[in-house]
Amino acid sequence: MSNVPDSNQSSDPPAALARPRMPKLWIGYSLALATFAGEAIAFTRNPDLFKGPGLVVPPLEMFLPAFLALVYWLVCIYNYHKILAAIPGYRHPISPARAVGFHFIPFFYLVWLFIWPAKIAEFVNARVKPPKMRGWIVGIVSISGIAAGIFDPALGMALLFLGLTYLALCLTRAFAAAANPDAGQA
User: Which residues, at least 6 apart from 95, have a Cβ–Cβ distance to it below 8 Å?
Assistant: First the structure.
């Protein structure tokens, strides 16, 4: 018998060391850009769109890409928690469904935007020395995105994905550190 693995066997590293497939954040940034294009189209068609008193229903070309971006943002959050829940030997304290579901609780979601990133930061900082991730940064950027989205949906969506970009970079660093524990971590 030969020690060469057959073509049916995988030569990938063990699951604990394999780099998981992270959500594609460029899709979210593209949706933010599409929202900006929708804003430009809406204001070109009707320059007095938001000058009237009271609330105005946004036109479809503004609403649809912003809505899709928000849904994709929640999908990304779900996927990050799913990745963490699948790590052998690690019990992530927040399930993917709970991570997304708690965003729909009025007023509590403002606190939740700080809780779930802090739990991910605990995972990252346990693997990367010295600690590199601050969960509150994701929370502040997310709240800034929500506030900015009231006045400019495209900017708000871009800020939401900016927070996830920071999170993705920190998680990537943690997975690289777990795969290479002897690397210099100064």
Answer: 81, 85
First vs last C-alpha separation in the chain? 45
By the 10 Å C-beta count (0-12 exposed, 13-18 middle, 19+ buried), 145 is classed as buried
Q: Considering only the C-alpha atoms of the chain, give the largest distance between any 2 of them, rounded to a whole number of Å.
A: 81
Each residue of 43-70: pLDDT tens digit? 888 887 777 777 777 889 989 999 999 9
- Quick one: average pLDDT of 147-159? 94
CA dihedral of residues 143, 147, 153, 159 (deg, nearest 10): -30
Alpha helices in the chain (DSSP H): 25-45, 60-85, 96-101, 108-127, 135-151, 153-179
Q: Could you tell me how many residues make up the chain?
A: 186
